[in-house]
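TICKET #2291
ISSUE: user wants both folds in one file
ATTACHMENT 1:
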Amino acid sequence: MEGPVEGAVIVDGVQSELPRLLTAAETAAPVEAVDVIAEDLWRRFDARKVSFLIVDLTGKAVARLYTAGAAEGGREAERIPMAGSVYEDVIRTQRLYQEAAGQGQRVIAPVTNRGDAIGLLELLLPAAPTQDVLHAVGEAAHVLAYIVIANGRFTDLYTWGKRSIPPTLAAEIQYQLLPLSLSCEAAQFTLCGNLEPSANLSGDTFDYTLDRDVLHLSVTDPMGHDIDSALTATVLVAALRGARRAGAGLAEQAHRADQSLADHGHGHAPASCCASSFTADGPSS
């Protein structure tokens, strides 16, 4: 990196691009926010290619949503199986990867927020990067995580990138019932769940949330594998969330979920549900 960049700040003796990158991303349209970061890196480091890859909902592939300098876009994206690949290693280890690639260097950084592996930032550089460049790449990957999360509220682009096949109606309902992040890494705990919405799992789902001193967790399992089980899960999850957000205790949450199913579950599948809360003293169910 040569000299200070306008808009950058110095943090612990290292030039930080966070303020400038965030400002540029916020100025862009939601569907172009990731593109702005990729193109910034492409120009700043004279990169041959800068790509953002998002992890598929199955956890088995990544989709290359954008490549700086390439004419990509629309509803076509390269999908790459992760099994046995360097992409899988970076997602698993959460460490920046670097290797020689032709006459340049390939650098891959994890795009992650609180343990939620969102995707990867990949660069092809003309020469071996300095520690300052690697720091800047890692910083940009960190920014990308927040950008994807924030702009995902305004566009289906990132949701589409996570889907390898069009979902059924039951799967779409199930997808909407899942927590916004399947993983959460905090000082007090680490939680990780995984459930691929599909026609064969149309009622199974889980949910969690963190209060100041309590972690709430629920798992629902309606019988069947059709739209009725998905609708039953909708009633259960909505009742649990509504009671929890109203400040009800665990027993009251379970009571309201049971009552809601009795009142509104006519003609739909029966279900089982496990709700727990965790404090520093241990779980209660």
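ATTACHMENT 2:
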Amino acid sequence: MVRALHLDLTGRPVPPPSPAYGRRFVAENYALLSLLAVPRRRWAAETGGVRRRTEWAWCAADDPLPALAMGRAWLAHLLRKALRALRRRWTSGRDDEGRPRGAGAPGAGPVPVREPRRVSR
């Protein structure tokens, strides 16, 4: 892509694309999401008995920093979502089962209601 942009910006002709058969590119963060969304889905069957080489977008043995940065960003995102959910639950005034806080223990019966105080004049 960068080469095509460079050739286009310098006014030179861009050669037609040539597909890289036998190579599979995987972006790990989206592959994980798709696996969680549809766990039974697998890679398409290999045609002609040729084993395809998988190339990872973030993970590389010679350069682990992009994978660590992606993992750190995902962890921060998950923690933000979890904290937001906890804060929303805490400020909503309800317990884990949806009852208003202070409504008594489950199975304890109705909560007693105090009669209003009468003021004598």
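RESOLUTION: both attachments delivered.
EXTRA DETAIL ON ATTACHMENT 2: Helices lie at 2-9, 28-37, 65-91.
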